[in-house]
Amino acid sequence: MLKPPNRQPPTGWRRIETLDAHTCGEPLRIVLSGLPAIPGKTILEKRRYVKEHLDHLRTGLMFEPRGHADMYGAILTEPVSNDGDCGVIFMHNEGYSTMCGHGIIALTCALLDTGMVDKTGDAPELRIDSPAGRVTATGHRRGGRVTKASFHNVPSFVFARDCQVDVPEVGRIPVDIAFGGAFYAFCPAASVGATIVPEEHDRLIHFGKLVKRAVMAQIAIRHPFEEDLGFLYGTIFTGPPADPRHHSRNVCIFAEGEVDRSPTGTGVSARAALHHSKGELAPGNSVVIESILSTTMTVRVAEVVEFGGYPAVIPEVSGMAYITGRNEFHFDPDDPLINGFIFR
């Protein structure tokens, strides 16, 4: 008869505990314990420290054999503001993102439903310090459980509209660039001869990377305040919805060819800024946007503001996340693949 396994790893092994969830199909691996202290007075400083000193733990958790090429993660930190509930650093197959909408939704559901943050009421708020700034999220409870999460994102704005970019294998295509916590290049999927369906994910990855590289080579992107935020995070292809009740459909190809299974919270935030700038989305109005899986997020223009010289909006994004499990990962110092590997 088998005996229960010895759950304590040997001396010298690192043990990291995580809570896993998904938002609209997009994974989030939340690191609960096992990392050393992360110094820094701001989340950007903490993010920089992790990148310079702890990147082997990112690859160990995101890459195979513990993860996969499309894994996404979050490191919880203490807040850096006086009234914050927590801080967060987001990570993926290429490095570290500046904001993550699906991650905020998953964190809201997970932190409230597990009691990691103790808040009462039917609509408790979480104040989360992200690399891009303060994000305020709300867990909408029914029967004591979060059934929807929403958040007010950082100011989102259009950086450049109606650009023409030369893309290898495609030619010249129209591109808009907007910020919703990260910078994205937006173009119709039809402009590269693609359709936003799961069966075409390899083509979407291929063309998404080509568009991203072309935009980076031809257009200099700058954030009005933070140099660390001034880079193109991904390509978002747009198209018609599968459900005629919805506004549209999109898919984000980000980092090193990751496919966002969700509609992309920061992406729909940037789209809110784009549609508002075109007179297509008035303050207080909302649209429902589908993902490549036909899961949905809703985005509303909550407020119109000015940000660093740009007309901007404060988007409210809502969606739902689900906890999928809890893990305890061991890092054997004798394992030649301790830091992970990736195929893409």
Protein model, in words:
The protein has 344 residues and is an alpha+beta fold. The chain folds into 2 domains: 14-153 and 323-331, Diaminopimelate Epimerase, Chain A, domain 1; 156-316, Diaminopimelate Epimerase, Chain A, domain 1 (Roll). Helix content is 18%, strand content 40%. An 8-stranded mixed beta barrel has the order 9-10-11-12-13-15-16-17. Strand 4 and strand 5 (96-97) form a beta hairpin. The chain is globular, with a radius of gyration of 20 Å. It starts with 13 loop residues before the first strand and ends in a 13-residue tail after the last strand.
Query: At the fourth CATH level, what is the homologous superfamily of the largest domain?
Result: Diaminopimelate Epimerase, Chain A, domain 1
What is the count of distinct domains?
Answer: 2
**What is the tally of helical segments?**
5
Approximately how much beta-strand content do the residues carry? 35-45%
How far apart are the first and last residues' alpha carbons, in Å?
42 Å
Percent in helix: 10-25%
The unreliable regions are: none
Largest sheet: 8 strands, mixed, barrel
Please state the CA-atom Rg, rounded to the nearest Å.
20 Å
Annotated CATH topology of the largest domain = Diaminopimelate Epimerase, Chain A, domain 1
Q: How does the helix and strand content classify structurally? A: alpha+beta
One letter per element, helices H and strands E, the order comes to EEHHEEEHEEEEEEHEEEHEEEE
Mean pLDDT: 96
Strand order of the largest sheet: 9-10-11-12-13-15-16-17
